[in-house]
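Fig. S4 source data, part A: sequence.
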Amino acid sequence: MQIGPAEILVVIVIALLVFGPSKLPEVSRQAGRAIREIKRIQHSLTSEFSDAFTEDHSAAAEEAPSLPPLPVKKKAPVKKKAPVKKKAPVKKKAPVKKKAPVKKKAPARTNGKNR
């Protein structure tokens, strides 16, 4: 994205209207300082990252210490066990679902009168 001369002129006119002619030089100096500070921080971070990823630390690193091998113990011979007989699986019965009891309605009372 590039800013052309027309855009710069519009920004200057708006800044002149917002800040006035007396404060415009002070505001522009502060804006210039802020931009310089941002560029300085950006350059610092860029150089730190590039140094961190491009440095070769292999020459300065020490070789990892090695441990002596562990003594090997002789294992006792394994005895064979007698085969275990398996029992036939027990069949489970399906659970019986209980039905909810049905409530019977009482006959309607008529008090001896027909309606």
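Fig. S4 source data, part B ends here. The mean pLDDT is 79.
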